[in-house]
Amino acid sequence: MAVTDGRRGLPEALEGVFPKTTLQTCIAHLIHHSLNFKSRKNRKAIAFAIYPIYTAVNTGTANAALGEFEASTWRGRFPTLAALSRRAWDSVIRFYAFPPAVRRIIETTNAVESVTARLRKIIKMRGRCPCDDAP
């Protein structure tokens, strides 16, 4: 399984090298992207409204939660939000094939972002060249 952030080209590259790989869209990135273009005053309410979709116990419950979200008042105010979830749905539902304990690990494990964040923090604190001999 490969968890991707939805960038173009990565799924095709992975499929070319590892054809049997299951591709999963990163839930955190999908939620963040869903909220990214909404006003700050609506973000908390929208996050609360889409939470049942991504925390459902199985595909059927998640699909029902997405249907409820699409039928809610949010669809009228933010039609692209439900459409975004529907477009990514095929790569989201693969997540529900795993038991909840494994899903929690998949949700919280993102080694590349963790390393990148730590490197940024170190560079910010120490500077790019920590020794006097460096050019």
Order of helices and strands: EHEHHHHHHHH
- Say how many strands there are: 2
Shape: globular
Strand order of the largest sheet: 1-2
State the distance separating the first and last CA atoms: 43 Å
Q: Could you say which structural class the secondary elements and strand pairing correspond to? A: mainly alpha
Q: Summarize the amount of helix as a percent range.
A: 55-70%
Describe the sheet with the most strands.
2 strands, parallel
Cα-based radius of gyration, to the nearest Å? 19 Å
Low-pLDDT parts are: none
Would you kindly provide a written description of the structure presented here, covering whatever features stand out?
The structure is a single chain. The chain is mostly helical and 135 residues long. It has one domain. Helix content is 66%, strand content 4%. The protein is built from nine helices and two strands, in the order βαβαααααααα. A two-stranded parallel ribbon has the order 1-2. It is globular. The N and C termini lie far apart (43 Å). The mean pLDDT is 78.
Give me the secondary-structure topology:
Layout: E1 2-4, H1 10-17, E2 23-25, H2 27-36, H3 40-54, H4 59-71, H5 73-77, H6 79-87, H7 89-92, H8 100-108, H9 111-126
Parallel strand pairs: 1-2
Helix pairs in contact: 3-4
Characteristics of this structure?
135 residues, mainly alpha, two-stranded parallel sheet, 9 helices, 2 strands
In brief:
With 135 residues, this protein is mainly α. Helix content is 66%, strand content 4%.
